[in-house]
Amino acid sequence: MATAPAIDRADTRPDMSDAEWKARQELAACYRIFDHLGWTESIYNHITVKLPDEPGAFLINPFGLLFSEVTASNLVKVDIDGNVLDGSDYPVNRAGFVQHAVFHRNLPDAHAIIHTHTTATMAVCATEAGLLPTNFYACNFIGRIAYHDFEGVTVRDEEGERLLKNLGDKRILMLRNHGPVVMGMTLPIAFVQYWALQRACEIQLATLSMGAPIHVSQEVIDVHQRDIFMAQASAEPGRADFDAWVRRIDKIDSSWRE
Ligand SMILES: [Zn+2]
Prior knowledge:
CATH class: Alpha Beta
Organism: Flavisphingopyxis soli
Bound molecules: zinc ion
Order of helices and strands: HHEEEHEHHEHEEHHH
GO molecular function: actin filament binding
GO cellular component, one term: cytoskeleton
Oligomer: single chain
Number of domains: 1
Strand content: 5-15%
InterPro entries: Aldolase-II_Adducin_sf, Aldolase_II/adducin_N, Aldolase_II/adducin_N_sf
Protein name: Class II aldolase/adducin family protein
């Protein structure tokens, strides 16, 4: 299927490598997809990716802009200590930086990280039981999610140790009374995981408003998690989903490519 032509990096930002420009475009697209799907929180929340050709550097959204205003060029490149590397005039949200930096710094496989405050995910994070094994999407995640108790807004470096300890070998952290953090080895993986988690939480919210839910047995959850990979549309996990949504947002406004 046709997509809008890629904007040539050399024409717009000759100071950037091809790898950086590609990472910027993919991340900017992801912000616009989140905007289109309504997974936004005013000028807050973050999706970050590591730069593949620059160890210790990652891209984050400029603080003060809506997700719908993010473009490849205005994403801010920061190092792991919070220094802006690309001369951007935009500030970076400290809460977003501190939280994402602790994972980017300590987990080599956490290439892409998504944190949101959507109503459904925050509501599930605000319940003692957390995500329940009561719907198809939730069964993807049972046993694969970690929880971290609320300590106030995540601006203190010293919380990092406890965030990592509570995360353990999981790559999805439900911040209690706050919201989820989803990490992936690629942005499409983090995206598709987040999409399923968002749906799981929306359905849990609807289910609990209707009465007693049916709990899925561990035996069925094990079968579901063993077989779920067969339902993928592309060899690269999340790629077909991500590219499909890129085509959708291109039909609305392709300025994210700039
Ligand atoms: Zn937050």
